[in-house]
Amino acid sequence: MKNIKLILIFFITLSLTVIAQKKSFKERADSVLALMTLEEKVGQLVQYSGDWATGAETSRPKEGSDELIRKGKVGSFLNITGVSKIKKLQKIAVEESRLKIPLIFGLDVIHGYEATFPIPLAEASTWNPALVEKSARMQAIEASAAGINWTFNPMVDIAHNPRWGRIMEGSGEDPYLGSVMAAARVRGYQGNDLSANNTILACVKHYAAYGGAEGGRDYNTVDMSERNFRDFYLPPYKAAIEAGAGSLMACFNEIGGVPASSSQFLMTHILRNEWKTDAFVVSDWNSIGELIPHGVAKDLKQAAELGIKATVDMDMESNAYYYHLVDLVKEGKVDIKFVDDAVRRVLIAKFKLGLFDDPYKYCDEEREKKTIMSKEIIKATKEVALESIVLLKNEKNLLPLSKKLKSIAVVGQLAKSKDDPLGGWSQKGDSNSVVSILEGIEKKVGKEIKINYAVGAKFKGNDKSGFKEAIKVAKKSDVIIAVVGEGRYMNGEAASRATLDIPGVQEDLLKELKKTGKPIVVVLMNGRPLTIPWVQENVNSILEIWSPGISGGDAVADIIFGDYNPSGKLPVTFPRYVGQVPIYYNHKNTGRPHNPNDHYTSYYMDLENTPLYPFGFGLSYTTFEYSDIKLDKKEIKMNETLKVSVEVKNSGEREGSEVVQLYIRDLVGSVTRPVKELKDFVKINLKPGETKKVDFIITPDKLKFHDINMNYVVEPGDFKVFVGTNSIDVKEASFKVIE
Length: 739
Ligand code: NOJ
Hints:
By secondary structure, the protein is an alpha/beta fold.
């Protein structure tokens, strides 16, 4: 009898465990929700910043963080780092609050925690999604070891305007490249198992179309057609959600008169109804509070009502939910369902992260010590930096420089800077761990080549007093390497510029150096496309290194001296002058495309239409030859696929990697279509003389767009397909889609 009882107990326990394990995240979240008071529910929707601010301070409740946590009045913090601090707060949440709900800790891990990778725009220049995924994976490993379980990244805003400082945080101008990179980053941060202790929740931002800010001025108005929005701006957010991103951030801006944080269209309609995602939405810093200056809410209470009804689930720093949501529900102005749905989504994320099972899983001091700035992560920062550098010009193969030169002049404040290579949003990035460009070069050449350094010019101000010394060192050297561009804080948030020139007197310095007659290599360090027609015309070689992160100096030295063959390609168009902005490769044809023989066509009287460097552009130390395009069919039905093949030969003398790019053009549609659209690409490595065949498959999805009735369809008709080394130098073929 006793045995039978024991067996019975064993089986009941077993089946309860199985049921518990089988419970979905939603069921588990609901079981917590059922225990919560209204005040505790609202608490889960409140987020405050900890150690520093990434926006203007708002008038927060008087109780300190500990007390807020104890009372269950806060669900998340941002800007708190390090295991000891995070563990202390988590302990209060899970040991001293009534329901013991764990906190989630967010941080802008945009291109690294402490080991700083190149900025995201640079990473996009690798055109290597596997590498970008690896970078995000490494960032997650490092950040999670420091207690962080949520990054406010990937930033996937398409940007056509380099005056917008935040272009550095994204993947440039193209929806396809942007989508591929967005998905890669989500995979990297979240890994295969979000409940592992070294994966973190991704937050796709800034939903949506923040990159369309008028005039490129940060936080400015966005207004665009729904078709433009859906075809060009929305795809990367969708790709990130399809890759499993667990959260989104609502942007600051309005679109067509409705600020994102109150937008039923963006949140309810697209996110919840069309995409059917349970990813939760966090506001941007005080973006619910900003519904007041936007002019759609008369006070913070109305702002809270608009935010929650739009399904903006978590309020970052505006206090709107903290002070008003309980009352709004009690007064019957907000249905409790809005609050419950929001809390459920937040709890689901906490369950997905495994925080209910082990709230301290990111809080291991030993792991923190071993992981931060580990050799493996630092090695990856160099790998990414190498692939992100774009060779823009190389007259008479000046680069790579010979290691047999006698002397080199290295000039520019940025050459010696150990701070600026970190770029914007570099979190715990420490300038002591940065290899400056000068250090990288010195390390590479040892005592073999004499390096003569001079500041020459700073990236700010009009001081030309350093020119003399720079000219002196240039005169006594065989070659000049001039590192010019933007400082660390000249791009990123609130860093819009009205001009795109190389700032300060740096270009004047280049003009003086040119007079010495010595060959010049310009190394550009910047977070956005700059207008550099004079430089293109007058110096021998140009390397775009962006803000290259901690290993930038080593990567640049490898490339300058030929230990690595550059393979980066621009993810964004470089204008000649700021007046051309917005300029992007996938523009429409217009009714009057420019014809030099016809005055009444679309052009500037004082400027060419063409960019300085087109989207997808980047040179190599070797050369590549493309064969003509072969198609497996000339005609396909709307649901069929088409194979596009091309052979690429390394016709030079060095091994190198090439990004083979495929574009299409839909010639006649129910609505106008761009002159070219990137639809696929692949990066291949070729030995000298080697030829590889590249096959692309055009699937119906690649031909779809929003038609005259806003349906997402393939339309029958004539198409062009282009394959080439950038968006302009391409081979061309034609095919037809039939019904
Ligand atoms: C404001 C920025 O717009 C956003 O990108 C960032 O994630 C938050 N501040 C938090 O720092």
